Each structure stands twice: as structure tokens, then as C-alpha cells.
Amino acid sequence: MGVPFEALIPYGIIITMFGVTGAGLTAVKYLSNDGKKARWNRDLWDRVMMERDLRLTGNLRGQSSNAVAPKGFEVNNPWKLEKRIF
């Protein structure tokens, strides 16, 4: 006795939904990274460079080829202030 085709409909729906969610996740990652592939295995150096790029260009994935930093970058310091106890 064969499998009735009605039993295959839920499997088709499940496979379709996995495909839709996978494509949606890929699209969201692609758009949130300014049309570039998502970064993976980031270490401290990468995070520091991403913060610098954010301060220079305004987004994490932007890079600038200007030899001179924009006006106001010298006062845009990423270091956090410490409380000094005397």
C-alpha cells in the first residue's frame, strides 16, 4: 500500500517554511551589513576597527580612503572616562 498524497502536503509546507525563513535570515543579514557578507570570527582587533569605522563614516561596515580624518574626529575619542579617587 502506498502513501496517500495527502500525507505529503504537511512535509511540503514544512520544507517551504524552512526555505522561507532561511532566505529571510540571509536577506536581513545582507541588508544590515550594507550589502556585504556577514562578518564572523571577530576578535578584539576587528571590533576596534569596526568602532573606528563607525566614528569615521557613521556605519560599522563603511571604510574611508581619505588620508585626512574629517573635522571633529580628533575630539571624538572612544576612550571612556575613569573616576579618580584621590
Automatic annotation (TrEMBL):
Compartment(s): Mitochondrion inner membrane
GO annotation, cellular component aspect: mitochondrial inner membrane
Pfam families per the UniProt record, alphabetical: MWFE
Membrane topology qualifier: Single-pass membrane protein
Predominant location category: mitochondrion
Record key words, sorted: Electron transport, Membrane, Mitochondrion, Mitochondrion inner membrane, Respiratory chain, Transmembrane, Transmembrane helix, Transport
InterPro entries assigned to the protein according to its UniProt record, in alphabetical order: NADH_Ub_cplx-1_asu_su-1 (IPR017384)
Family as reported in the entry's similarity comment: Belongs to the complex I NDUFA1 subunit family.
Name recorded for this polypeptide: NADH dehydrogenase [ubiquinone] 1 alpha subcomplex subunit 1
The organism of origin for this protein: Aspergillus ruber (strain CBS 135680)
